[in-house]
């Protein structure tokens, strides 16, 4: 396996920035629009309230499992995975 | 080497983890069933409560004792053998404190939408942990977080700073956990508070002293199972009863819709005051948007900086598992946090329905008396103890018609979770279960924090700075003694019921964020960060944060005098400040001056700020100062040495050996 530490780090950094942008969106961005979202109702939940109570949390969990898998495949492709 | 190692943490144990904890969970359900039967047979509630608390603590203690170890690597990092899912559960228990378990739903009950800042802040931080920090610290191979600071930023001084920040943010936190243990035990078992504190302490010590991280890990997994079962059970039953679907997280949408219509109905009937009612779904009724988002931000970054959380990711077998373990941690934490708003909504619906139907003061429900006696429910300003007293207090209020109004009722946030089983008319066994869950939450967090503090003292201060030649046995002995000393100090502090310590817990997040986060993240992600930059960044970031916290809380008058021009107080508030100040200046020395000062100081605390930011979000100032200082100072001083830069490169690569190797760590020695 070809080891390419530099490319590994640049791909790792790109993934990091993508994750941080998503993190900022679900932590802050979407909640700026709570009043507008609250006009939409799903199962009785006003959407703005729902996003803060559940939606963003679900997004965080899914993001982390995807991150973990993505980083693992980057490590493998660049020949720097463990073992 | 005869046969497999069958002890806890041994080969056979790790191979059969799934089975072991499945049996454990089954056994726990069986135990709950037995107690439920005993209750039906007429065994008094008190004994059911004792049964829950003592049996669960005994199980944790047995796990703790069976996990005893003489190996340094097992003591500090559980032998780096904890699979990611189990480390996720342990982190969940480590993370969710007594306050999360007991108080979170109550906070959401009182604050409505604005309380969700805590739900968001205490979950989203794990994204930062996984992406920016955990895998790199795992690769580094440290025993403690200060280990990393020392290696990356050249030695003792950075290590000492990290230890100081660690202790500053962990000690008040652990005190609050032991306090919570005492409160829960004294409420449910009628124990004296001080006795309960020391009884809880004994349980906590048995779980951690003999086996260090290894013991704490396997008890925390057991505690997670108890706490999540206890948290979900009452609200699942409630949801099934009310809406026919046992998934409260889905059904509480209907509850919210009903709450909104009840809010309007109560106002229309004159049972609630339109000016003070906070509609449940309306944003920014307690925090303005700036403070709402600042709080989320500070809690998240604080999460990613708290040493007792970060050190859990030192225990996984691989870096890959450290990453997936953060995902599992968040999943297990999420199970509780996305349920908390459902608790809040169901309780609120119950309470609002009660008020809306025009309940007379003479007909208050029984649960209000149960918790009123403990000083947790007030009506018309007095504890609900006797119907006559409450009626008399309400009669004194002008225009009171003898019906319970929303503004008459004052509920302590802790009551929401504790009283749900009773309000919904469930058997006492469910209430006992909730108490056991609350204890598990408080004890598991206390274990993690105590270990973080005592490890910093024994490993970072004693072994690394005072006696680097200490033998393995000496190091472990010192660790255990320090653990007991720290635990007793925390229990003593808790037994004095310090009001301030409890409110200061929220500060831990800002302090950790400002003191640790910038140097930690830049240490991995910016090779150019050097020792002078990091050291100054930690001092200034932490210093600014501490200055803001202490200044706005304890020296509010002088803080306002100095920084009033940066504040956002309204003209009316400023006018009031001027009047109170004049009153203080003109008051006769002695009691009158003291009273005037008290009034002035209390008012100053509400207006002393920079741009109106509440002090719970002090890291909003500390963090940028920390980051900027590291940037500027590092660029003005020479780059780190080649060795340090190579070390950073190695930290970034998952493959290869750990950066730090401990000579006493390998089981069996060299």
Topology of helices and strands:
The complex is a heterodimer of chains A (83) and B (670).
Chain A: H1 5-27, H2 34-37, E1 41-42, E2 45-46, H3 47-77
Antiparallel strand pairs in A: 1-2
Helix pairs in contact in A: 1-3
Chain B: H1 11-15, H2 17-40, H3 45-66, H4 72-77, H5 84-95, H6 98-111, H7 116-140, H8 145-152, H9 156-189, H10 193-208, H11 212-243, H12 248-268, H13 289-303, H14 307-310, H15 319-337, H16 340-356, H17 366-372, E1 377-379, E2 382-383, H18 387-395, E3 409-411, H19 415-423, H20 428-466, H21 472-495, H22 499-525, H23 531-554, H24 556-563, H25 571-586, H26 591-607, H27 619-636, H28 642-652
Antiparallel strand pairs in B: 1-2, 1-3
Helix pairs in contact in B: 2-3, 2-11, 2-20, 3-10, 3-11, 3-20, 5-11, 5-15, 5-20, 6-16, 6-19, 6-20, 7-13, 7-15, 8-9, 9-10, 9-20, 9-21, 9-22, 9-23, 10-20, 10-21, 11-20, 12-16, 13-22, 16-19, 19-20, 20-21, 22-23, 22-27, 23-24, 23-27, 25-26
**Using CB atoms under 8 Å apart, which protein chain pair has the greatest interface?**
A-B, 49 and 47 residues
Question: Order of strands across the widest beta sheet of chain A?
Answer: 1-2
The structure class of chain A reads mainly alpha
What do the pLDDT scores of chain B average to?
91
Number of domains of chain A: 1
Give the N-terminus to C-terminus distance of chain A in angstroms: 12 Å
In CATH, the homologous superfamily of the largest domain in chain B goes by the name Sodium/glucose cotransporter
Report the sheet with the most strands of chain A, covering strand number, pairing sense and barrel closure.
2 strands, antiparallel
């Amino acid at each position: 396996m070809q080891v390419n530490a530099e490319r590994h780090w640049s791909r790792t950094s790109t993934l990091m920035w993508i994750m941080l942008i998503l993190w900022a969106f679900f932590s802050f961005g979407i909640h700026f629009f709570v009043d507008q979202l609250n006009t939409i109702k799903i199962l009785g939940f006003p959407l703005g309230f729902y996003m803060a109570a559940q939606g963003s949390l679900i997004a965080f969990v899914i993001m982390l499992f995807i991150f973990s898998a993505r980083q693992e495949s980057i490590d493998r492709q660049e020949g720097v995975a463990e073992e | 080497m005869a046969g497999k190692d069958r002890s806890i943490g041994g080969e056979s144990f790790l191979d059969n983890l799934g089975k072991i904890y499945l049996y454990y969970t089954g056994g726990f359900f069986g135990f709950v069933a037995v107690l439920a039967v005993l209750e039906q047979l007429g065994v008094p509630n008190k004994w059911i409560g004792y049964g829950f608390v003592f049996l669960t603590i005994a199980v944790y203690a047995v796990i703790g004792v069976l996990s005893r170890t003489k190996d340094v690597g097992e003591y500090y990092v559980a032998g780096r053998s904890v699979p990611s899912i189990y480390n996720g559960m342990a982190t969940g228990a480590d993370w969710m404190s007594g306050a999360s378990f007991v108080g979170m739903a109550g906070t959401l009950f009182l604050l409505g939408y604005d309380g969700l800042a805590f739900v968001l802040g205490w979950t989203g931080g794990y994204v930062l942990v996984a992406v920016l920090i955990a895998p790199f610290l795992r690769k580094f191979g440290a025993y403690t977080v200060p280990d990393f600071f020392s290696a990356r930023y050249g030695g003792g001084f950075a290590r000492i700073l990290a230890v100081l920040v660690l202790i500053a943010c962990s000690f008040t936190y652990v005190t609050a956990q032991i306090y919570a243990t005492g409160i829960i035990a004294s409420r449910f078992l009628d124990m004296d508070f001080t006795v309960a504190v020391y009884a809880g302490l004994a349980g906590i010590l048995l779980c951690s002293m003999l086996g260090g991280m290894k013991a704490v890990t396997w008890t925390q997994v057991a505690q997670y199972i108890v706490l999540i079962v206890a948290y979900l059970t009452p609200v699942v039953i409630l949801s099934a009863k009310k809406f026919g679907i046992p998934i409260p997280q889905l059904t509480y949408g209907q509850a919210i819709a009903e709450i909104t219509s009840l809010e309007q109905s109560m106002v229309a009937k004159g049972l609630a005051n339109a000016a003070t009612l906070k509609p449940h779904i309306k944003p920014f009724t307690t925090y303005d948007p700036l403070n709402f988002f600042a709080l989320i931000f500070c809690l998240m970054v604080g999460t990613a900086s708290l040493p007792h959380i970060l050190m859990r990711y030192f225990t996984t077998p691989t870096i890959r598992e450290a990453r997936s373990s953060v995902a599992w941690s968040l999943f297990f934490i999420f199970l509780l946090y996305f349920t908390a708003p459902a608790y809040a909504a169901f309780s609120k619906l119950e309470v609002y329905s009660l008020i809306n139907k025009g309940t007379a003061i003479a007909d208050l429900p029984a649960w209000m008396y149960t918790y009123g006696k403990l000083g947790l429910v007030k009506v018309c300003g007095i504890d609900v103890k006797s119907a006559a007293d409450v009626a008399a207090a309400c009669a004194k209020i002008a225009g009171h018609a003898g019906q319970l109004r929303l503004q008459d009722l004052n509920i302590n946030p802790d009551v929401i979770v504790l009283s749900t089983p009773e309000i919904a008319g469930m058997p006492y066994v469910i209430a006992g279960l909730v108490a056991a869950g609350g204890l598990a939450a408080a004890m598991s967090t206390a274990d993690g924090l105590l270990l973080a503090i005592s490890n910093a003292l024994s490993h970072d201060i004693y072994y690394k700075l005072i006696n680097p030649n200490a033998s393995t046995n000496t190091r472990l002995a010192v660790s255990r003694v320090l653990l007991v000393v720290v635990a007793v100090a925390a229990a003593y502090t808790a037994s004095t019921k310090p009001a301030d310590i409890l409110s200061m817990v929220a500060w831990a997040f800002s302090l950790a964020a400002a003191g640790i986060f910038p140097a930690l993240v830049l240490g991995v992600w910016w090779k150019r960060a050097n020792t002078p930059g990091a050291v100054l960044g930690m001092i200034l970031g932490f210093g600014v944060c501490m200055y803001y916290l202490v200044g706005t809380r304890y020296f509010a008058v002088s803080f306002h005098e100095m920084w009033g021009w940066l504040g956002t107080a309204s003209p009316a508030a400023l006018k009031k400040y001027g009047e109170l100040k004049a009153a203080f200046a003109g008051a006769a020395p002695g009691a009158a001056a003291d009273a005037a000062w008290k009034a002035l100081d209390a008012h100053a605390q509400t207006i002393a700020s920079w741009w109106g930011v509440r002090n719970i979000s002090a890291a909003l100032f500390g963090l940028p100062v920390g980051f900027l200082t590291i940037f500027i100072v590092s660029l003005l001083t020479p780059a780190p040495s080649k060795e340090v830069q190579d070390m950073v490169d190695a930290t970034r690569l998952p493959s290869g050996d750990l950066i730090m190797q401990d000579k006493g760590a390998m089981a069996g020695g060299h």
